[in-house]
Structures are given as structure tokens and as C-alpha cells.
Amino acid sequence: MKALRRYLPILDWGRSYDRGALANDMIAAVIVTIMLIPQSLAYALLAGLPAEAGIYASIAPILLYAVFGTSRALAVGPVAVVSLLTASAVGQVAEQGTAGYAIAALTLAALSGGFLVLLGVLRLGFLANFLSHPVIAGFITASGILIATSQLKHILGISAQGHTLPEMLGSVLAHLGEVNWATVAIGASATAFLFWVRRGLKHFLRHLGLSPFLADLLTKAGPVAAVVATTLAVWGFGLAGHGVAIVGEIPQGLPPLTMPSFEPDLLGALFMPAILISVIGFVESISIAQTLAARKRQRVDPDQELIGLGVANLGAAFTGGYPVTGGFARSVVNFDAGAETPAAGAFTALGLLMASLFLTPLVYYLPKATLAATIIVAVLSLVDFSILKKTWTYSRADFTAVAATILLTLLAGVEMGVASGVAISVLLHLYKTSRPHVAEVGLVPGTQHFRNINRHEVETDPTLLTLRVDESLYFVNARFLEDLVQERVTEGGAIEHVVLMFSAVNEVDFSALESLEAINRRLKDMGVGLHMSEVKGPVMDRLKTSRFLDELNGEVFLSQYDAWRKLGLPAAGRSHRPST
Amino acid sequence: MKALRRYLPILDWGRSYDRGALANDMIAAVIVTIMLIPQSLAYALLAGLPAEAGIYASIAPILLYAVFGTSRALAVGPVAVVSLLTASAVGQVAEQGTAGYAIAALTLAALSGGFLVLLGVLRLGFLANFLSHPVIAGFITASGILIATSQLKHILGISAQGHTLPEMLGSVLAHLGEVNWATVAIGASATAFLFWVRRGLKHFLRHLGLSPFLADLLTKAGPVAAVVATTLAVWGFGLAGHGVAIVGEIPQGLPPLTMPSFEPDLLGALFMPAILISVIGFVESISIAQTLAARKRQRVDPDQELIGLGVANLGAAFTGGYPVTGGFARSVVNFDAGAETPAAGAFTALGLLMASLFLTPLVYYLPKATLAATIIVAVLSLVDFSILKKTWTYSRADFTAVAATILLTLLAGVEMGVASGVAISVLLHLYKTSRPHVAEVGLVPGTQHFRNINRHEVETDPTLLTLRVDESLYFVNARFLEDLVQERVTEGGAIEHVVLMFSAVNEVDFSALESLEAINRRLKDMGVGLHMSEVKGPVMDRLKTSRFLDELNGEVFLSQYDAWRKLGLPAAGRSHRPST
Description:
two-stranded antiparallel ribbon; 10 strands; homodimer; alpha/beta; about 60% helix; six-stranded mixed sheet; 25 helices
């Protein structure tokens, strides 16, 4: 039963579901549904799919996540970044607008879902940590710029293409002669209106005396107002005849049952993009889920989240959708609107189902420029360069990773950008550990505590060289310590004992063990003792399985102070070293 | 002048070169030359090149290394593993026996040389550390098996091919019907003879009363004896007419001036193999150089070694050779024979030059089976599976890396094998750091020293939770600590203060800083103080650039003992915790 409840969190929150929770969930669902209708249509277009795919991708996935997910507030569905990644991946294997394109999108969702479920069952959620916070922040910012740029063509009513910023801008410039002014009028005013809604409407409505709740609700309905107004304008003035691109016919009905392709070539081509989409989607989703859960002191289980998102993606694959994940905007709206349980998601799915059954004829004349405006306004709020400044002050390595991620995402595309971000973070980390900080330490007078002789006022002993190694010892830096000890001992004449203070050594791998053996042999030849202090339990356990401790030309001390008392000169011989 | 001496070590040892050194160097050169003639021919065949390429690859490179290298005993030239890697890389872009094949080998040497020089000038020698000792050991062992297997066809007189063990064995089995028995007779007896020379001859000669020096010299001449005997046999019995493959005509003269190709396609195809060959060659070479230098208390400068090897490879590229590196067998022989300076190498080059001028007609009838026997006997001494046992006892992670390297080298080829070895080592290291060891610590009675409560008898305080974090905090494990602290604090009721003991934290990157901020915020909300102790200088410097220390809901203590005295209960409230 407990195991079942781990895989089906619904059994957990379902037990205490009451009338109050129901009311809250339903109100949240209405608000989210209103917001999601234009957003879903828009993101489907961003992904290069027919508009209805966005609605379909919001129905089954939400329901499935409600059963398998652990976050109470996460709203799953199409999101901007994953839509962009989908367009980029599927665009490489099929032509937009073909049946192959839609099937490839289904296949991508299936692969990505399968991969997420696999990671979840194997409890490998920690792998997502390889995408560091700064890299994600940089990636989201760059993606926001890419997405907004990709929508320019819809606002201008021209055809343009490209997957990188220079390609897109170049293509827009090349087609600038074909601008459709009716489209520009609609697109520009919708964009301006939506920016105003986001920035000023709420304040304005509060000023008029509306209740906070109502002001908030009307603000969220802003995109719907833009949709209604521009649809009416196109219909009333017959603008479709003047070259304004419209959404057109959308099939009315339940989400269809669809089948992803299992053709090996296609699976091979989509394999890497699917992993990328899974990881990025998961990281985005789990960050949102954890932030929201922390506010209510709830817990989110990362491994179960993998399963929840995976099943949601599998659901999308079989019901005409495309890859989905937890969206920031929709989740926050859901949370703020008072959603208490995943049932709110189920009600949202119901609302969208109604929309796909009855409302699709109403959006026939909806101009694509309005959807583009919705996307632009939504994604520009993701663009935040402050991470560059923050990391610059704190750590050049983090700054390098962020800057590279942003630049490469803009200049070489999303896949290259995020992959480079991860690779650069890992390499910089390894580089840092390859040249570890090693401090010579002395006794802080009046204590049993040892600190760096260059930073603190400490007592030292000319016959005793104590090096505090500030890094785990492993193959990347094994030889470094070998060279360092050799250098220090040959340069200083009076040294009789070397103590390696291992308080910061968390691992000694086989290569490092061989280096320690070499250090021991060389010091023995030179008549210098090699000792160790403050070796931690796990490291000691490991060393005991080798012959190193038997051959050690010295002792292992529990604390550095013990080593100092046993090996050092009497107090008279010590020198006092002021901090510099 | 000092800068010049850094790049031209010859200016260093050249100043004190005297008559004694000259005599020693010349004797060593004679011995090494005798050993190198058959070896060079054999390795060229292993690389798929005409036999003379092996001689040429030993002349200019040795001379150039004598000028630019820092090791006194390293002997540079064709070696087994690099020859195998050359065959594998060049075989992918050209057909063996064509002019394109030889040019591709020159190009590979040029690329590899250029890359090594670049690394040396940029002082990036530490990059070679990514190839850990166990991975190299595994790779060399597996390569030895591959190389020996690849020579079976020459011993059997059949044609066979393949780059992996199953391919090679399959191909040999498929052609088993074509065995040439005259070749087998020569190959098998040469192999048996050479094994006996290696195992028993020296002992036998000493037993006969020869001086150790002479016994040793005759043992080293064993391969030459095999060459002479089998060449005479083929010539005398006219075995070439019975299908015994012979070396045939070798151009007589100085090494030719050659030009590698700079065609972009070829450079692109050889780029990755060149990097691999450079790194493997460098690592093999530097290990040998350092081992030999340590015996005489000399120093080897890894960055200058890169330049020395790089220039040697460039030399090979322009004089009809192929990629070279410092060879184990030849360097040890050189060292044991008493070589004192790189001049020994120069004399060896002179000896080989004589050979290429005057001796090549003599090896016309030399059977390839004899060369194959030389290779087999040489490389089987590299095969050593003890690394598997050693790493199994010491660390499963290292064992996994070795086992994967061996298996993948045998089953998927050398390039895949070594690349996987590096990737697996890095991933396993990152995996280990992603789930750090965190110990709850208490005071060792009568000291100021704190240790793990589960391993030592210590005093603890129910209101004070002290966690010693045994790992640098960075993006891969940032969230781990967040979850852990949350869990520990919510489960234990009486905790008023949490102290993070940072003695083993060597880095806090930006992601980890954000996690620490999150921990601080949450503990503040719960009314629990967050403190830190024993934060190291470099970590503290970094933290001071952020606002974390201002917002910290507690203090930073110099030592854990200070924190204990300030925050803990009076002694009466402490509990004594025996070690378990």
C-alpha cells in the first residue's frame, strides 16, 4: 500500500479532499482555463504545429499529472521553451505543416515521456542537478529572446525562418519588403495592449475601486480580451482578405487518439533532443514545484515528479499533443488562485475539453499576430540579464558558464547552448579541483585550532611542515600534490616531518593512493617522516584496504593538535608568525 | 637567457657535458640502436606503413627531442600503442598501401605535434591528468592484447583484418584455411625463441659465466639474432617462393623530406584521433620520464615535455615518419645502459641513420612473421590484469573505470575504449560528489576536536545540530544539502541552532550560494539559527562578495569549538554518546 502510494500520490491527498478544497480548486481551474486557451494555441504555433495541438497537449497531460504528480500546484502543459525546443528538434526531421511533422512531435513526446519515467523508476532525478542554476537562468533568458524574435514574422505578416538569432534577424530583414500593414496594425496594438495589461491594468482597476480579486481576474483575462477584439476586427473588416494570417479551421471534438512512430531512424534522430527536452523540462518544472511547495511547507519528491511528468508526456504522445512540462506562469496563476490539490488541474482539463468541443469555431478568424503578441509579452518577462551581474561579482567561473550559455544559445541554437552550458560548468569545476588550494597551517595561540599561516597569527615549527590539502584527491589532481610536497621539502632545509592534514580531503581514489605511496617513498629516501591528521572515517576505511598505512613512514593522528604535540619542538623552539 | 633555457633544455645539460658522459652516452646508444632496428621495422608494419617509415620516425624525432626535451633518458620513436592508434585512425581515411595512407600518417603526426606544442606553450600539461592511472593501465593491457592478436595473421601467413578483438578473431578464423605452413614454422619458432630470450637467456648466459654486462647485451641482441637467422633461412631455402611474406625492397638513403597534407577534409577527419594520440602518447611518455627522473632525483617539466614531444612529431611529419612518443622499453634500456644526457638519443639517431644508409638491402629477405613475433613478445609484456584486482579491493569506482576501459577497448576499438575510460572516470567522480558524505559531529571529550557521532565517543548537545559537510558545495550537490538540512531540522524537535562545519568545503559556487540562502531563509522562518564554523579563507573571501553573510541568521565561528562554547548548553545539559 505504501509502495502504491509512492507511485500514486492521488491516494494521499484524495483521502482528505473536502468541500472547501473543491471550491478553491474549481475557482483556480476557471481562472487558469481562461488564461490557457490563447496560450495553448500560441505555443502550438511556436512549436510549428496546428493550433489545436496546444489544447490537446493540455488535456490528457494535466489529468495524468493530477494522478501521478506530487506537486499540489504545478500546472502541466505546453510551455514556451519546450515548444521552441520541439520546433528545433522536429524541424530537423520533417517539414513544418506535413503529417510527418505532427507524428515526429508525438514521437518526441513519447521518447521524452519514456525517458522521464525511466529516470524516475531508477531514481536518477539527481542527474538534473548537472544543469546548474546559472546555466538555466542564462538559457531561459536567451530562449526568451529567441522566442520573441521568432514571433516577429507573425507580427509583421512576413515569412521568415531560422533557429539562431542571426538567422532569424537576417531572414526578417530579407523579407522586410513583404510587410503586411494590416497584420502590423493588429500585431502591434495587441502587443502594446498586452504589455499595458501586464504593467498597468491591475493598478488602474484597483484605482477604479475594484476588489483585488476582481482586478486580478480581469488582468488575467487580458489575453482573452485581445483575442476577442482582434478576432472581431478581422471578421468585421474582412481583414483575412487583406493578407492577415488567421488560425482558420480547427477540428471540433475530443482530443484524437494518436500513435507516435516507432521507426528506428526517426527514434535515432530524436533521441538526443528528447533527452534534452526531458532534462530541461524537468529542471524547469521541479524548480517551480519546489518553490511553490516551500511556500506551503509541502514536499515534492523529485523522483516521483519524473514519473508524473513522464506519464503526462506519454499522454500527450497518444492524444495529439507534443512535449509538455510544468509551466511557470500557469503554475503561479494556479497557486495564486488558491488551488489546493491536483484536482484543480483536472478541472482545468475539463474546461479545456469544453473549449475544444464547443469554442474552436469561434477562433476561426483569430489572427496569428495576436497569438504572437501573447507569446512575445509572456516570454519577454523571462528575459533577465541580472544573473550575469550577480555571477560576475560572485564567481568568474559561474559567470563564464552563464555568458557562454547565453551567447551560444543565441548564436548556435538552443541545443548547442544548453549542452555547452553543462559541459562548461563541469569542465570549469574539474579545472578548479585540478589545482587545489593547499595551505601551510600553524597553531592559533591559546587554542587547539590550526589555520593558514598567511592569513592568521599562528605558531609554527621549523621542523614540522603541515599542509592542509583543500580538495579531495583524485586522478585529476593526484600528481599536483606529489609535485608540491617534493618542491616544499627540497626547498626548506630543516624539515623533519611532513604532516598532511586531511580535514578537507573527502576522497582518495586509486590514482591519488598511488601518488601518496610515491610521496611516502620519496620522503622516506630523504629521511623525512610522513604523517597524516584528521583523516575522515570514509577515507580511512578506504586506506585501510590498501597497504599504504603499513608502509607509511610515520603516524596517523586523530587531530592535528595531537600531531603537533607529538612531533613538534618544545614550545621554546617555535616561532610566532603574525598574520600578513 | 633563462626563458631561452626553458624552451631549450640542451643549453642546460650542454654546459657540463664531459668525457665520462660522452662514453656512457655512446655505449647506451649502441645498445639502443641494436634493439631499435627490428623494433622500428615491426612497429611501422603494425601502423600499416612500409617498414622504412619506422626507421625514419626514429631519426629526426630523437634528434629534436634531444634539443627540446627535459628527460635525460627518454627515447622517442614509434611505439606499439601509438602505432596501433595510427593504423586505426589512418585506416578510416585511406586504403593501406596507397600513397594517401602514408600522407595521412604524416598529417596525423603534424596535427598531433602541433597540438602538443600548443598545449605546451599554453602550459596545459595538467589536462593529461584526466587520463587516470587505472584507465591508462587498463588501456595499455587491452591494447597489448589487440596488438598481439593483430599480428596473428603475419605468423599464420594469412590475410585478416579488423579493429576490435571479435573482428580480428573472426577474420582469422574465416581465413584459417589459407594458412602458409612455411610462414608458421618461421613465425612460431621466432616467437618461441624470443620468449626464451626474454625469460631464460640472461640467466643461462650468467650461468655460463659471462659478465652481467655482456649477458645483458646479448639478451638485448636477441631480436637481432632472430632477424638474422630467419632472414638467412628465407634466403637460403628460397622460402619467399613458398609464400612467406618478406619485407622486400627498402629505399636506401637519408630520410626523405616529406610534406603532410593540409586538405581541410583530411585535417577534419584526423583531428580527434590526433588529439587522442597526443594525449595518450604524452601520458605514456611523461609517466616513463618521471619514473626514470625520480630514480636519479632529476626533474621533468611536463609543459616542456609537451613541446619536446610536439617538435619530435613535427619532425616525424616532415621526414617520412608517423606519430611518435617516448617508448617504455627503449627508454628503460637507454637508462639501464647508462645514458646520461639526451646526447645518447642523438647518437642513437646517428646509428639508425647509418642503418638506413647501409643496412636496408640486408633485410630484403626478412620475413614479416619475424617482425610480428618481435611485436607479440614485446606487447604481451604490457598485458597486466593485476590492476583489476588492485582497484577491486580499493575502490569500486576505479574498478568500474578500468573494467569498462578494457572491455570497450577490446570490443569497440582503441578510440572508443580510451574515450569511455575518461568519460566514465569523470562521471563517477561527479556522481560521488553529487551525494556527499555529511557527518553529524560532537566533541571528543578532553579535546577541542569534533568527530562523527557514529564513529567516535563524543559529547553532543540536543539543542545544537552540527553537520560537517564533507564535500565542496557546487551545482551538482547544491540541492542535496538543502533537502538534508530541511529533513534533519523537521524531524528533531529540540534543535535551536544548526552549525554547518565547513572544514571540508573547498568551494561554494553560485548555485550552492543560492542553496545556502534558501536554507538560511527557511531556518529563519522556523526560528532556528544558522551558523557556520571553520570556513576557509578562499571560501570566506568569496562569500563576502555576496549578501549571504549580512543576511545570515547566526554567526560565523573561527573554530567549531568556539561555536560549541557560545551556542551550546552548559556542560550539564550535554549527553555522552558512545561510539557505535
